[in-house]
Amino acid sequence: MDNGHEPATKQDLNQLRSEFQQDMSQLRSEFHHGFDELKETLRDSETKLLQAFYTFAESNQKRLSEV
Fold first, then answer.
1. Phi and psi for 66 in degrees, rounded to 5?
2. What confidence score (pLDDT) does residue 38 get?
3. 50 lies in which domain range?
4. How many independent structural domains does the chain possess?
5. Residue 26 to residue 44: CA distance in whole angstroms
6. Cα atoms found within 13 Å of the Cα of residue 37, Cβ hemisphere only
7. What is the C-alpha to C-alpha distance for residues 40 and 65, in angstroms, rounded to an integer?
8. Is there a smaller number of Cβ atoms within 10 Å at the N or the C end of the chain?
């Protein structure tokens, strides 16, 4: 399989399969890492939104209690 003109052997196919499985495993790992980062970013955004709403509600409550 070195020169590209000879037929592939079972050993060549097994080697190719092994390399492919390693690449897929690495790709899967990178995908999960990216997905975890996305979840963390969404969680942070949700926390910031909830804090902003809470601050708004708290200041509104103070204004209402003064009136």
1. -75, -30
2. 98
3. 9-67
4. 1
5. 27
6. 6
7. 37
8. C
Per-residue pLDDT at 66:
87
The pTM score is 0.61
Question: If you search the block for the tokens 């092994």, which residue do you land on?
Answer: 18
SS (H, E, C) 1-67: CCCCCCCCCHHHHHHHHHHHHHHHHHHHHHHHHHHHHHHHHHHHHHHHHHHHHHHHHHHHHHHHHHC
Tens of pLDDT along the chain (67 residues) come to 566 788 889 999 999 999 999 999 999 999 999 999 999 999 999 999 999 999 999 999 999 998 8
Residue 2 placed within a domain:
no
Phi, psi for 9 (deg, rounded to 5): -95, 170
